[in-house]
Amino acid sequence: MHKNVKLLALTAAAGIAVFALAQWPVKGLFAQLGGSSLPAGLEAIVASRELSPDDVEAALKTYVPPGSYDEFLLFASGGQAGNIEVIGVPSMRLIKNIPVFSKDSWQGFGIGDDDTKRLFKQGAAAGQIQEWGDVHHPALSLTNGQYDGQFLFANDKANARIGVVDLRDFKVRQIIKNPLIATNHCGAKMTENSEYYVEGAQFGNPLPFTEFSPMSKYKENYRGLATFWPFDRASGKFVTNRSFTIELPPYYQDLGGMGKKISHGWVFINTFNAEMATPGALEGKPAMEVQVSQREMDYLHVIHWKKAEELLASGKLPTRTISGMKVVSIDQAVKAGILYNIPEPKSPHGSDVTPDGRFIVVSGKLDPHVTVFSFDKIQKAIASKSFDGKDPFGIPIIKFDAAVEAQVELGLGPLHTEFDDKGYAYTSMFLDSSINKWTLEKGPRGEKPWSLVESLPVHYNTGHLTVAGGDTTQPYGKYLVSLNKWSLDRALPVGPLHPQNLQLIDISGEKMKLLADAPVVGEPHYAVMAPAKIFKPWKVYPEVGLNGLTLKKSATATAPGQERVARNGKDVHVYMTAIRSRFVPDRIDVKQGDKVHLHITNLDRAEDATHGFALSAHNINLSMDPGLTVDVDFVADRSGVFPFYCSEFCSALHMEMMGYLTVAKGN
Ligand code: CUK
Ligand code: CUA
């Protein structure tokens, strides 16, 4: 069956080739395949759909026949939708949504269950539960600088939080909130062996942000920072009480590039607003966009975190505790030789380290070049104290000329850079709306070093781009996805809010080739892409009665035959099971004012036999994957009769999988 499909595709390609020979200028694929005969019908399809040879090639390259799988998985940030979308490449089909900071009623995430309540509580900001997030930078866990397929991390820019997704079941296990800062940005990048997740602040604020200080004291009292959160692979969690923070100036810390191989132990975080401007439009101040673009140069923070870690371990680096966080002051960091600045051109954004760890590529949004710094030169400059004075906070400024390796003129609005397996770099050009391919120190095909090779238009205003493995020590290459901010004419009109547009680009050949448009939900920022085969997710949970958050046997798991209702004063505990196609018990009779604790165990062991639990008028929908026990608490505060039912169509008798909650009037 499968073989036949492939055979058909091949014959189709060959057939189309003949047709193409007759109709269009012959190129690439068509030239190679010419001479075969065209199966009946295909010629008509190509003609009626007005497909060009390029279209047909793109179709054949992205087509994944029904029942077959994609080669890569793309984890794309959903931006202010607070989620991560899992997309198959090359088909660009959406395979899964992972809710991280925002609710998702399909997965019963945040729709009443106790586990999400606990998660959201971990992520409370200034004491308030936040039910959404702004995901910018997904990151995969690393072993020796390469994706290991175990964990996925995502930052929430809006609330300075980080979520951990366990890739055994593609679910969130932990949300942590940085108590010092209101917003974060850089982070989302792991050190080489997932020792630390590095979180950088975005907008300056007093430390902690819950302390008020007037704007007029911005320089004195506001700060930025970088927090190093140790990750414990065994428990799959951040060990928050072992974190350390390096205080930074109140410039806006932006993207960070993580050192690799020879530069392992260092992180390179760019900043903007070295002007330290503050808003005040009504007081006659220029707009922030004007104030923040005054200077020719901002600063790239160069941080030796490995040395900080060692000095902290031996008690040689003094810290103070703020809001429970261990903080190294700027002064101490400078004294210890773990913090430097390098000037970087106008409104920097991306900071990306080459796979060999030798170069750091930064892009100034208002500079037509990308600037390439050499790690080796940075080390020499530090050793020989090749400094250009200090910034207003006493941080030594490494001489630009002493650190720079090359400036490559690429065009307008360079943002982010990634690398392929052949030695090329690719930069997203926001203003030019293109992906620009360029050479590093060697042109893989004999091109000039440090020079633009090719520019491919994208639609439109690309933000990030991602190459498969493009931020690791060993990129896979083959595909590049451009994550575009505007879509304009790229999708059928569906109202003034357009879908965002991802574009798949084939980078395996000499020339880049645009293969597909893929509209998505939410603002796409960064994405990471890895071969599907490195992921080994469970098909069902390994045992029955697991708690979905701890993955340990739930204290409230209920075995078949053990279903019961246990009343203790006003607390009513219902130990329920779900199996195709019934709930036991299927009637819950309580009095108004009772507190109901439902504990539902899905006894099914079959793959995909998920049950839902939707309770009318109580804002509750649970999703119980096979093996899970899910808990929900609520007060039966209104009298009435409320049906509940399974909200997953699980069997022929799914419609009958229901019950009633009856609430008698209290007295
Ligand atoms: S940022 Cu969105 S395009 Cu938050 Cu990574 Cu550059
Ligand atoms: Cu269980 Cu439908």
Short recap of the structure:
With 667 residues, this protein is mainly beta.
Describe this structure in words.
The protein is mostly beta strands. The strands form ten sheets. Strands 8, 9, 10, 11, 12, 13, 17 and 18 form an eight-stranded mixed beta sheet that branches. β41 (611-615) and β42 form a beta hairpin. The radius of gyration is 28 Å and the shape is globular. Residues 581, 611, 646, 648-650, 654, 657 line the site of dinuclear copper ion (CUA).
Task: Provide the CATH topology of the largest domain.
Answer: Methylamine Dehydrogenase, Chain H
- The secondary-structure class comes to mainly beta
Second CATH tier, the architecture of the largest domain: 7 Propeller
Which band does the percent of strand residues land in? 35-45%
* Count, helices: 11
Query: pLDDT below 50 for ≥5 consecutive residues: which ranges?
Result: 1-32
Mean pLDDT: 93
Top-tier CATH class of the largest domain: Mainly Beta
Secondary structure: number of strands: 45
Q: What does the main sheet amount to? A: 8 strands, mixed
Number of domains: 3
Report helical residue fraction: 10-25%
If you compute it from the alpha carbons, what radius of gyration comes out, rounded to the nearest whole angstrom?
A: 28 Å
Shape: globular
